[in-house]
Each structure stands twice: as structure tokens, then as C-alpha cells.
Design goal:
- By secondary structure, the chain is mainly α.
- The chain is about 70% helix and about 5% strand.
- The protein has five helices and two strands, in the order H-H-H-H-E-E-H.
- It has a two-stranded antiparallel ribbon.
- Helix 1 packs antiparallel against helix 4 and helix 1 packs across helix 5.
- The longest helix is centred in the last third of the chain and has 42 residues.
- About 15% of the residues are buried.
Length: about 120
Amino acid sequence: MQTETDQLSLTFAALADPTRRAILARLAKGEATVTELAAPFDMSLPAISKHLKVLQRAGLVEQGRQAQWRPCRLKPERLRDVADWVGEYRRHWEASFDRLDDYLRELQTGETTDDAGNR
């Protein structure tokens, strides 16, 4: 369990940065070089490379090697782990919202009765 938590911490830390999330969104469309990934940002190639290293340590991105071309690609498994973790809490939130809906319906029914009784 500790290893899973540590991996989740790395993943969430990597996802905390908007540049890294944008890089992941681009890689979700297919492989790209560091130069291609850097194009939409106003930052240097070394800065993009640092972001990629964070994503690689978190297991979200891998970089291949094809001769001189080193394409980066998304590794979606870690994102699935995050979705599973969040999913556990989603069940809790949905149950809480269901109880809140029930309570609000009870309040509305009570108000309707009171309003009718007062008229």
C-alpha cells in the first residue's frame, strides 16, 4: 500500500503543473518530439525536458529511441491508477449527494404542506 501511495504522490505532483498537463494532453493525440512539445510554450527546450523528466519519473511518459528521433509517448496506466483512486471517493460523494437530494425533497414537501396549511 505504501508503494501505491508513493506512486500516487509522484503522479499527483506531476499533474499539479499546468504545463505538464498540457504536455500530457498533446501526447494523448500521439507521439511527439521534445521540439514539438515545446512549440506552444514560451520556454526553452531544457525547461521542457525538465518537465518531461518529472512526467517520466511519475510513469506518465516514456521516451523511445529511433535513430536520431526520440519520440515521447503517453503511458496511460498511471492515469488509470489515479482514476481508480478518485473513483473510490466518487462513490462516497455520490452517496452524499443522494442523501442531500433526499433531504432537500423532504424540505420541499414540508414547505409545500406548510404553505398549503397557512393559506
